[in-house]
Amino acid sequence: xxxxxxxxxxxxxxxxxxxxxxxxxxxFLPEKMQMxxxxxxTTFYFIWFNCIAWxxxxxxGLAENSGRFIAWVKxxxxxxxxxxxxxxxxxxxVPGEFRILADETNLLGTSMSMYDSHECCxxxxxxxxxxxxxxxxxxxxxxxxxxxxxxLYVFHSLFGYDPANGFRVNLLAAFxxxxxxxxxxxxxxxxxxxxxxxxxxxxFPLLILYFRSCGFETVNLLWLMILVFFCRMFLQNPQASGxxxxxxxxxxxxxxxxxxxxxxxxxxxxxxxxxxxxxYNFLSWKTVxxxxxxxxxxxxxxxxxxxxxxxxxxxxxxxxxxLVEKNLGQFVRFIFGDQRKxxxxxxxxxxxxxxxxxxxxxxxxxxxxxxxxxxAFLLIVCGLAIVHLLxxxxxxxxxxTLQYTSRLxxxxxxxxxxxxxxxxxxxxxxxxxxxxxxxxxxxxxxIHGWPVAGQNLGVREIFFYREFRTVKQYLDRNFPAxxxxxxxxxxANLYVPFGFSAIxxxxxxxxxxxxxxxxxxxxxxHALVIQKINLNDGKPEExxxxxxxxxxxxxxxxxxxxxxxxxxxxxxxAFEEK
Amino acid sequence: xxKSLIILVISSVVALxxxxxxxxxxxxxxxxxxxxxxxxxxxxxLVFSIYNSEHSxxxxxxxxxNARAAGFxxxxxxxxxxxSPPDFRILADETNLLGVSMEMNxxxxxxxPVESLYxxxxxxxxxxxxxxxxxxxxxxxxxxxxxxxxxxxANAFILNAISAxxxxxxxxxxxxxxxxxxxxxxxxxxxxxxxxFVQYFTSAGFETFNLALLILCFxxxxxxxxxxxxxxxxxxxxxxxxxxxxxxxxxxxxxxxxPLLLNFLPENAxxxxxxxxxxxxxxxxxxxxxxxxxxxxALRFQVETVDRAFGLEYLWPNFKGMVMFFLSxxxxxxxxxxxxxxxxVGLILLLEKWFNHKLVKEQRWFNAALAANTVFHLxxxxxxxxxxxAQPHTARLAIVFLxxxxxxxxxxLRRIETFKSPVNIAPGILLLMFALLISCWPVxxxxxxxxxxxxxxxxxxxxxxxxxxxxxxxxIxxxxxPNLYVPFKKSAIxxxxxxxxxxxxxxxxxxxxxxxxxxxxxxxxxxxxxxEDLPINIQxxxxxxxxxSQLSTLHYLRISxxxx
Lengths: 578, 564
Known about the structure:
The complex is a heterodimer of chains A (578) and B (564).
Chain A: H1 6-28, H2 32-64, H3 66-93, H4 103-117, E1 122-129, E2 133-140, H5 147-159, H6 165-189, H7 191-202, H8 205-211, H9 217-236, H10 240-254, H11 263-274, H12 285-289, H13 295-303, H14 307-310, H15 315-318, H16 324-335, H17 346-365, H18 372-393, H19 413-430, H20 434-454, H21 463-478, E3 485-489, H22 492-495, E4 501-504, H23 505-510, H24 512-520, E5 526-534, E6 553-561, E7 564-572, H25 573-577
Parallel strand pairs in A: 3-4, 3-5
Antiparallel strand pairs in A: 1-2, 5-7, 6-7
Helix pairs in contact in A: 1-13, 2-10, 2-13, 3-6, 3-7, 4-5, 5-6, 6-7, 6-9, 7-19, 7-20, 8-20, 9-10, 9-11, 9-18, 10-11, 11-18, 17-19
Chain B: H1 2-20, H2 24-52, H3 59-65, H4 67-83, H5 93-107, E1 112-119, E2 123-130, H6 137-149, H7 155-179, H8 183-192, H9 195-201, H10 207-227, H11 230-244, H12 252-263, H13 273-279, H14 286-294, H15 298-301, H16 315-327, H17 335-355, H18 361-382, H19 402-419, H20 426-446, H21 448-451, H22 454-468, E3 475-478, E4 491-493, H23 495-500, H24 502-510, E5 516-524, E6 542-550, E7 555-563
Parallel strand pairs in B: 3-4, 3-5
Antiparallel strand pairs in B: 1-2, 5-7, 6-7
Helix pairs in contact in B: 1-14, 2-11, 2-14, 3-4, 4-7, 4-8, 5-6, 7-8, 7-10, 7-19, 8-19, 8-20, 9-20, 10-11, 10-18, 11-12, 11-13, 12-18, 17-19
């Protein structure tokens, strides 16, 4: 402790104060309404500032190690080119689609709001008119964190607003995931096995499926891997600049997916313990501000902590230890690819298990021989894996065999791939020519498995996906001029981010005059009503019921599931006048 | 050697035992579930043998060393696609192969989905399926393309373009090795000048793929005889296995090449695992044998009894058809007579060399294998009920002879140079070959052969109408041959199935599972009546005619829609 100088103590003191301020402001002092207001108006700037600080930190690090970085790229460019080729082929094999709804469209909606007004909310009912003007009838704070929409915002800013930017972001993230994974395992296993690792990772159809979706899982995985990578860098060379890079990465990760905030508890204590005391003197303002950067994540949790957000009857149901037994059983089925549609590969599950046993044996045989930094790294990785596993196993929706939730298994895939490659690498050391067999086998698994992603086997049972695809396909074919009409639907939020004017059925039911006025003023030529009709009685479902005030002309009907079909009808002023 | 012979005997006995002892249902099921994996192992063997055969021996190195020729072959293929736009021409062969590749892509099973219903954006219920009589290698490689680039019917054209390129390039390598200079280019242009070659590499059939594999087998055999490299011998076996599964009669090539390969295996190969693998190769022919024994029936050969599929009575008419194809100029314009005559000259000169013992042992055996293979293919065509090459739908059976004709023609032309000319005549000959190509290619552009086929006409009209009326997943097609449409992601059933499902079809319309039925009927000109009755009580639904057009002098096509 004597090694810490007054400047170091000042930074530590201010950091303590900022932690306290963050906890008080984040959880206790403001009212919920106030938090919501702050969240909407400041989150964008929090993330914006965080990103700028992170980039400055990264630039400083790269400037210090530019020679090493360039030499690394020169040495490994074939592997990086291989990653790019894999991503390119995957992008052809699996078309980009919005699969998990309304998650993906809500994230897109938030990015649209960021693009329009730098506000962090999801516009759920909007009327567009006069070529770009917009009347937002309803917007909500989306429960999903804002960092993924911020990525989309950056792409929208650079290339113009386009829903497909989501796919571009995820493809870029996928490439970086492969590159970081390669960089993580290459020092341990060598170039060839590291590239084999990438092939193993890419042979999971689940991963490819979500690389080509518009959800936040891919970006979350990327930032998690970046965090792990920085942790390893820091443990190899424990300096204040390294830990500050991690301090700035953690708030970004915390705002990518809900449970990713928990990484703080796995990473920070270990790193603080491992940092030489003298390095505390070199901490800077970045350490002081880092705790405050978590504020939007805290506000969001408080604001959206409701039964509706978690889709449960009571909030106690959302997380419970009682769920562990059931979820764990399903988790095992998921990991071992019990069914093709889970997007997993059975054989890789078993190889990973064998790899884990081999790794544990090697670990215990040579535990004392291992360097301390290596043990600390192992502790961090295990901590992260356990925290993520617990978050899923105790969660109401933590059954990974469900089509909606299989994507929660994505974070475990790099770990599984590492264990598989560890085993294969050990066997290659024993018999060198087996390496060819591994490459052939993994390519075989890839070709065998990818059609699962290409056929959308993992998401086809989701009703929202079906409804959205059916309606959008119909509208694109038959009503391409989106400024001529508005949609009335119980899922208006699905359509708003695509530039459709859309309002909720409930709003239309309560405000028939407003609806007819829009049509009579010729702001729109017609309204298209999307309803779910019960097959038994031929009547609209409760959420789709529009009331008796409107006369509708049926345009299109298509079955949604065994109990209902979708009906698209037209409501126009001219039709009403008849 | 002794051990290897034991392996050969055991693998042959096991293969024959598994073909003839089990019941047909077992064989069919084994074929359906294992063919993909057999093909995959053979494919990996081929890739690894090429990868491992060192420096100048391997195809990759040949490609690097002859980049110009590779580019030239690619230009010919691209130009061919401009000339003859890719299309599904021979039906239902090409769509059936595509259907099998779709099923392989979805489930790795080797079956043809005949009737299927699609729903909920990609879900599919197979109503009927069958074991397709066409061998599985082509659909398998197509399924690999689907696997890495997503399922698309157009992948069939990509595969055929690659096959055509490979066939041309390998022909170049083999001819250049013997004749040198520009003669490889001359051979490429000579082969490409046959309109039938262009027409079928821009189609989705398996002929070009089969041709590329056949040339690959002989190319690798040639290299093996020169180098006695064990990896190349593995490559020969792997390519033979794939070839044996690429067209029905191609299995005969195994009989021509395998004995030669076993005979020439080097002494130092003893106890090497690759040698054992080669001797165990009969086991890899199981899918082909299972397929032949399960689909050997009159229905599959489209004859009254299976004995009528092959016979000496077809020899004369088929021979006349062959002469017409290769000599008359009616079918292939000038390429037919000119190249055939030149090839005859080349053949005579080759025989002269043979009988004067001017060829080394390896070359003699190589030529003998090639000759035996040609004879087998000739016999297979001459004795086959549908072996008349003058018919538009069977002209493609001639493709397999084209590289040999081109190579022999070049050999004949080359002799002129060595005989008389003090100057290099190859550039001039190359220009003349180009002239020949330009004069013959319009035949391929005219699409004359395929245009005469009724199924092709009907299929082309139907696809145009479906596109115009946006027929997608919400429609069910009721047609005579649903297997044509299922690979294009269209729900399709036969009229007989529709009769059986009448109530269910009506319910599906009422439930909005589907919005409409699209019905393809053939209307007889004489009585104005449809050859197929409507399978649904039309009084309760709206119906309208979407399209009508003449198909033949006897009947016209009517496409109508039935909806609520």
